[in-house]
Design a protein that fits this description.
It is a single chain. About 5% of the residues lie in helices and about 55% in strands. By secondary structure, it is mainly β. It has two domains: about 90 residues, Immunoglobulins (Immunoglobulin-like, Sandwich), CATH 2.60.40; about 575 residues, Maltoporin, Chain A, CATH 2.40.170. The protein starts with a helix and ends with a strand. The N terminus is likely disordered.
Length: about 750
């Protein structure tokens, strides 16, 4: 462990004095100087903004080819690629107005293009945009992105579902590392707080070429918070209140950047009581609290750009299954989960003559504990002495969890971007991880295990005229070794057999983007991906209290392999945008869990099995910005997915079709108010009748969400104010992807959300 940490810090030791500087002026087409334009170099994590004369300056830059991104609200984002060959380079920009949202630079794909230039369609949203919608948790916000849903257990636990695929088929990245937190369970949440994130990107479809196993269904990529602009200090704090759960979120952030060194630290505390349904019933034990802290140190020189990040997250989350005692208490209640995640990562970009090497090394420790209350069946009544002993027992239970899992993950990612040759950009790389899973509790759901992943890949992109072609190939190997366990339980012994398995796979992808009739952008992507069976699927043998069932693994499972085709068309003018995405996904040996009809330890037995499956559907969206009503935006999105087994039976837990309509007014004509908005969104979720053998029908419902907010500026002080009403009509409904639906427990009723953020 010590030697591994030493390797992490080696990147910070190789530094040279930097000499290169870029200066310039940014104006609009009317030759007006623009104040506050963001100028950013992503690979250096370095940025600044223009002054009142539209002037910017970036110092201490490497002698290499760099991509300079210029972004300003209301104008089209620009990227210029420049090779620095002299000490001072002048680079001016003229920005054109754009009535639609800014084009975003995509980080999760290998060439960091603007979304409009990408061969692969990627959805992106900033945390600020999501907060404007009145999100309660980060996992809840995911479902606002077309094609993405959330499988929830109350409000404290949520998992991303991308086009009907979830769990280990959707890979989550944070700080440049794959987030490993025992994500095999449907009731296991993300374990990451929004305070550590700048924006999120979603790759919908196989991304095994870029990320290996577990990216068969897609990738949820969290971009960490940015450093402050060069030579500046930022201090901010925010407070949010939630009426439904009587919840609060408190966050504070401090950033300081110099010419070469950069620092940041922020933290947050989130606390909620049991949520209320529209019938005014509190759902017992949906309470949760979460503490999060993250910090970062960055350094730039002529040779290297390095960023060291640390993340700490601790949460206590109730495990609900009934509507019981009605209380607004936030104290923990049995049963509950105690989750702690610690993550450290070091990312480096090393600049060579005409190429660069990017590396990410990291370590993640995830502690997952489940606490449950034990009952004394021998005595129905207790005297005072017995009651005291019971309280002491509960305190001991608080210290000794029934289920204790510790997962250590060592990750590495090395990419070499080769010199560009005849407009062909090429990246080759190696990625992998080594994991140790250990049990320390009296109950064992999955055994002790060691997992070793390694993958090598190459991908290239060729751009010519208005066309782009991107393709690649990858080879992966996963070795999984478990240890023998005998676990006494009542009069039985649950046995975990030792297994030693290896899974090998070749993944590939090919994509093509072109312009049709000057205004239509079309994309066609063909890709394959794979997922090796996870520990739970192979080895489970016991009661999982989080899911209220007895789970049986199957060590005969084969790896999943899928083949997906995607096609998209985008028609865009200055005042109208139309988007159509379609996909067909065929999966060999799809793994799913299903009831056996047996009872074990008073719980239904569910076992893992597999069958070939197919999923198909898509998303349709339009955005109207009628002229001359420049302040008005009308959005509409429809999304659908159908999933079937090879025998014609429907797959379980497929999201219902959904239509979302939004009317949004933007207010920018008041001097003291910036980025002001008022919006109304109607989410229409359709009836779900496409059911697996053990599901029940879900009725249609409509939810109305309202929001208003903006940035208020008073002299040098500015603060963001948001007010939202979610489920404004207090509609009673059951989401098809709610794990509480089986108990007839409804989702959250009306929720007033008030947020205030100060920027000093």
């Amino acid at each position: 462990m010590k030697s591994y940490i030493i390797i992490l810090f080696l990147g910070l030791s190789a530094v040279l004095h930097s000499q290169n500087t870029i200066t310039g002026t940014i104006t609009n087409t009317e030759k007006e100087k623009l104040l506050g334009v963001e100028v950013y170099i992503n690979e250096l994590h370095k940025g600044t903004s223009t002054n009142e004369k539209g002037y910017f300056e970036l110092k201490n830059l490497p002698s290499n080819t760099l991509k300079i991104t210029v972004a300003y609200i209301g104008y089209k984002t620009q990227i210029k690629t420049i090779k620095l060959t002299k000490k001072i380079t002048t680079l001016n920009f003229i920005l054109k107005e754009s009535v639609f949202k800014m084009d975003e630079v995509i980080i999760s794909t290998p060439f960091n293009k603007l979304q409009s230039e990408n061969v692969m369609k990627v959805e992106k949203a900033t945390i600020k945009q999501l907060k404007n919608k009145g999100i309660v948790t980060l996992s809840e916000s995911i479902s606002t992105i077309p094609g993405v849903s959330t499988m929830s257990t109350g409000i404290g636990i949520g998992k991303p579902v991308i086009r009907g695929l979830r769990g280990n088929r959707v890979l989550v990245y944070s700080q440049g590392l794959r987030l490993e937190n025992q994500q095999f369970g449907d009731e296991h949440g993300l374990g990451v707080d929004a305070s550590s994130i700048e924006s999120m990107e979603v790759i919908k479809g196989p991304a095994s070429l870029l990320y290996g196993s577990d990216a068969l269904g897609g990738v949820l990529y969290f971009n960490p918070v940015k450093f402050a602009s060069e030579n500046s200090f930022d201090l901010s704090g925010s407070q949010t209140f939630y009426s439904n759960t009587e919840g609060t979120n408190t966050a504070i952030s401090a950033k300081q950047s110099f010419s070469k060194w950069k620092f940041l630290a922020n933290g947050s505390y989130n606390s909620h009581s049991d949520y209320k349904t529209a019938n005014n019933d509190r759902v017992t034990n949906t309470r949760f609290n979460e503490t999060s802290f993250n910090s970062a140190i960055g350094y730039n020189s002529e040779l290297i750009s390095s960023t060291l990040r640390f993340l700490y997250s601790k949460s206590t989350i109730g495990i609900p299954d009934e509507i019981g005692d009605q209380t607004a208490s936030k104290d923990k209640l049995f049963p509950y989960q105690g989750l702690t995640t610690k993550m450290v990562s070091l990312s480096n970009t090393i600049f060579l003559n005409n190429s660069k090497i990017s590396t990410v090394f990291g370590f993640t420790r995830n502690n997952r504990n489940e606490f449950e209350e034990h009952h004394d069946d021998e005595d129905e009544h207790h005297d005072d002495e017995d009651h005291e002993e019971e309280e002491e027992q509960h305190e001991d239970e608080d210290l000794e969890a029934a289920l204790q899992l510790v997962l250590d993950t060592y990750s590495y990612d090395v990419k070499w971007q080769l010199p560009t040759f005849k407009n062909i950009e090429t990246v080759v790389g190696v990625q992998g991880m080594y994991q140790e899973n250990r049990n320390y509790g009296e109950e064992i759901l999955i055994p002790n295990a060691d997992i070793n992943d390694i993958g090598v890949f190459a991908t290239a992109m060729h751009t010519f005229n208005n066309n782009s072609i991107q393709g690649g190939i990858r080879f992966d190997n996963r070795n999984l070794k478990t240890y023998y366990h005998e676990v006494p339980h009542d009069d039985e012994v649950h046995i975990f057999e030792a297994i030693d398995k290896s899974f090998n796979n070749v993944s590939a992808s090919l994509g093509y983007k072109t312009q049709l009739f000057n205004k239509i952008t079309s994309r066609i992507n063909l890709a394959s991906g794979f997922k090796a069976p996870n520990l739970a699927e192979l080895t489970s043998n016991g009661v999982h209290h989080g899911s209220n069932r007895f789970e049986l693994g199957n060590n005969k499972l084969e790896q999943e392999q899928n083949y997906q085709s995607d096609i998209s068309f985008e028609y865009k003018t200055d005042h109208f945008e139309l988007v159509l995405n379609g996909f067909y996904n065929y999966i060999n040996d799809y793994i799913f869990i299903a009831p056996t009809g047996e009872i074990e330890d008073d719980f239904e037995v569910y076992s893992y099995t597999q069958d070939n499956a197919k999923l198909y559907g898509g998303e349709f969206g339009l955005h109207l910005h009628p002229h001359p009503l420049d302040w008005l935006h009308l959005h509409s999105n429809f999304e659908m997915v159908i999933g079937k087994q090879n025998n014609g039976d429907y797959l379980p837990l497929i999201p219902a079709n959904k239509l979302t309509n939004t009317i949004r007014a933007e207010i920018n004509s008041i001097k003291w108010l910036q980025n002001g908005f008022a919006s109304a969104t109607l989410e229409s979720t359709f009836e779900q009748n496409n059911l697996s053998n053990y599901e029940t029908k879900s009725n249609a419902y409509n939810l109305l969400n309202l929001g208003i907010g903006g940035t208020i500026k008073l002299n040098k002080l500015s603060f963001d104010v948001n007010f939202n009403i979610n489920n404004a009509l207090d509609k009673s409904y059951l989401s098809h992807l709610s794990r509480l639906k089986i108990n007839g427990i409804e989702n959250m009723g009306r929720n007033f959300i008030t947020s205030l953020k100060f920027n000093l």
